[in-house]
Write a structure and sequence with these properties.
The protein is mostly helical. The chain has a single domain, classed as Arp2/3 complex 21 kDa subunit ARPC3 (Orthogonal Bundle). The chain has nine helices and two strands. Strand 1 and strand 2 form a beta hairpin.
Length: 234
């Protein structure tokens, strides 16, 4: 869903940069706080960024000037909250534009807004809603990953609709057409990403359980279990 270089007009690029900038600055401040106050989470922070980089680099041709791919931003949103992903996502998009010719620098603001801002917030909202409704953890993770992906492609479709409005139906009609084309590849990708997210968090639960508990992703161990563990070690 990265919009390629030269697809948007300079004015539109400027608007998306301006809209995204406050979220990215907020995210940068949150990353600095996280590293300063919780240095033990640096590896998880790097994992969230790397996961997003790898998944979003897997692109399939789709709408002219864009592509379909997983995003991976839901994982970081669950671990560190959405503001952090605005900054990490922008860094990922810069590297992909410069190293992989995936996306662009002129369209960085638009791509950041769709993938690193809207996607994480939507995914996190579904994650928290599922938790509030006492849904299973696997469902919460699945929805966080899938809806972060799905909402990103919805925003990209609107951005392209604004850039290339339909002569009869305007921006809405153009966005609907882009949505229909994207859906062919993006819906299966979003579902697959949801299941991949479940596997990722099961792995993290095995290798970084203490950090996940501090972050509130894993529930604290019952007191009896902790006492039993101490007795067994003694």
């Amino acid at each position: 869903m990265h919009i390629a270089e030269g697809i948007l007009s300079p004015a539109q690029c400027g608007v998306w940069y301006a809209v995204s900038a406050p979220f990215v600055v907020w995210g940068a401040v949150e990353v600095v706080k996280e590293v300063k106050h919780h240095p033990e989470n640096r590896l998880l922070l790097a994992t969230a960024g790397a996961f997003t980089f790898v998944l979003s680099a897997i692109k399939l041709p789709s709408v002219s000037g864009s592509s379909s791919h997983p995003t991976g931003t839901g994982a970081g949103a669950v671990l560190f909250r959405p503001p952090v992903m605005a900054f990490l996502g922008m860094i990922v998009l810069i590297f992909q534009a410069l190293l992989l010719a995936h996306g662009g620098i002129s369209t960085l603001g638009a791509n950041t807004f769709s993938m690193a801002i809207v996607g994480p917030w939507v995914g996190y909202a579904f994650y928290k809603l599922t938790k509030v409704c006492h849904g299973p953890d696997a469902l919460a993770i699945f929805l966080a990953m899938a809806t972060a992906d799905f909402s990103t492609y919805c925003v990209t479709s609107v951005q392209l609709g604004i850039a290339f409005p339909d002569q009869q139906s305007g921006v809405g009609g153009a966005a609907a057409k882009f949505l229909g084309i994207f859906a062919t590849t993006q819906v299966p990708l979003a579902i697959a990403e949801g299941f991949l997210g479940i596997l990722l968090f099961r792995f993290l639960a095995n290798v970084a359980a203490p950090q996940l508990r501090k972050l509130g992703v894993l529930a604290d161990e019952p007191a009896e279990s902790a006492d039993a563990a101490e007795v067994s070690h003694a």
